[in-house]
Specification:
- There is one protein chain.
- By secondary structure, this protein is α/β, with parallel strands linked by helices.
- It is built from 14 helices and 19 strands.
- It is 40% helix and 23% strand.
- α2 links the parallel β6 and β7.
- The longest helix has 18 residues.
- Bound molecules: iron/sulfur cluster.
- The site of iron/sulfur cluster has 11 residues, from loops.
Length: 391
């Protein structure tokens, strides 16, 4: 049977650039020529990519198991533009009958009519960037919507027929206390979405938040408070019936995001749109990031790829381990060995034993996972594990 594939579509536009965000996104008027040309170029990108041959076969022979529209703000596009892109995808790739088709949305970028049109196009999962149910915190975070608009967007998605909704929330925000975080979480639980993604605010280089932070003008909760927020969320969401399946992600049983699981299992995906990354056939490559250059290269037939690398073992093994340890179920060492033909124990035994001794990793027979104690510092645990790897 032909191996399924996942598709990521990057929409690099927003109505406002949030001060903490370092994503590849640009503020443009919705009617601008650049938006129109970028959507056309993404359509051509999909068509062209579908004919690329990997391991002797064109990608268009592989059915899509998941499609994810991310950004930026995919719902920045009009219904006509989203319709055009979905039609292009459907005319170039077969879709599995139960394909998961997700889109990110911002509270002010979609109403019932737009969500209903997206539902009719086949989208069956919506991820709304809520961040906080607190107007003062939203302002401190430089978001451009209110709590009322966030709640309204959630109900609009429901009214439009979506039965799989994710809410993105952030913690560790300027001026946020533990009780304020608890209040946001409580409101999320009351709305009962199928999925919640919780991200700690990080200060990214080159952002306005970084400049404020360096200048001492951004007062953030201390590390202990941020850890307390995360631990509270784990306990509260467990009590509310959610499964904690990835460091930052919780779902009702059966609603884990299948597209993101493809990334965490280090499986294959094709990425189209400015700056999108693809990983197929052991090769990872990235497309031109700036929309203007992306459009111009597409028009002139130039190669869109700006970076590429071949991931052979043991590097591919390291990456699969690194991604898999983000999952609460952890990773099977036997499965790693079968997939890469290398013995993970021979490579990581030193690090595993040390981290197990410190109580940061759990190792039961074949499975390795980050312990509850190690969870808030998962990144450092993984770095430590890889640092001790045998060549
Ligand atoms: S809406 Fe999202 S993608 Fe757009 S600037 Fe804000 S955080 Fe970044």
């Amino acid at each position: 049977m032909t191996k399924p594939l996942s598709l990521y579509v990057h929409i690099p536009f927003c109505v406002h650039h949030c001060a903490y965000c370092d994503f590849n996104t640009y503020v443009e008027p919705a009617q601008s020529a650049l938006v129109k040309e970028t959507v056309e170029a993404i359509g051509l990108d999909i068509a062209k990519a579908s004919h690329e041959r990997v391991e002797g076969k064109p990608l268009c022979e592989r059915p899509l198991a998941t499609i994810y529209f991310g950004g930026g703000t995919p719902t920045f596009l009009s219904v006509e533009q989203l319709t055009e892109l979905m039609a292009t995808i459907r005319s170039h790739f077969p879709l599995l009958p139960d394909a998961e088709i997700s889109s990110e949305a911002n509270p002010t970028s979609a109403d019932v009519a737009k969500f209903a049109a997206m539902h009719a196009l086949g989208f069956n999962r919506i991820s709304i960037g809520i961040q906080a149910f607190d107007n003062a915190l939203l302002t401190a975070l430089d978001r451009f919507h209110t709590t009322a608009e966030a709640v309204h967007a959630y109900h609009a998605a429901r009214e439009a027929g979506f039965t799989n909704v994710n809410l993105d929330l952030m913690f560790g925000l300027p001026k946020q206390t533990l009780p304020l975080w608890q209040a946001t979480l409580e409101q999320a639980v009351q709305l009962a979405p199928e999925h919640l993604s919780l991200y700690a605010l990080t200060i990214e280089p080159g952002t306005r938040f970084e400049r404020l932070h360096v200048g001492g003008r951004l007062v953030l909760p201390d590390d202990d408070t941020v850890v307390a927020m995360y631990e509270y969320a784990q306990q509260r969401l467990l009590q509310a019936g959610y499964v904690h399946y990835e460091i930052s992600n919780f779902s009702l049983p059966g609603f884990a995001c299948r597209h993101n699981l493809v990334y965490w299992h280090n499986e294959e995906y094709l990425g189209v749109g400015p700056g999108a990354v693809s990983y197929v056939g052991g090769r990872r490559w990235k497309r031109e990031r700036l929309p203007q250059r992306y459009v111009q290269k597409m028009k002139s037939g130039e190669n869109l790829c700006v970076e590429e690398e071949c991931l052979a073992p043991p590097r591919a093994l390291d990456e699969t381990l690194l991604l898999g340890l983000r999952l609460r179920a952890g990773i099977s060492l036997n499965a790693l060995r079968d997939r890469f033909g290398l013995d993970p124990l021979a490579r990581y035994r030193r690090g595993i034993e040390k981290l197990v001794q410190q109580g940061l990793l759990e190792w039961n027979d074949d499975r390795l996972r980050v312990s509850t104690k190690g969870l808030p510092i998962t990144d450092s645990v993984i770095v430590e594990l890889l640092a001790g790897a045998e060549p």
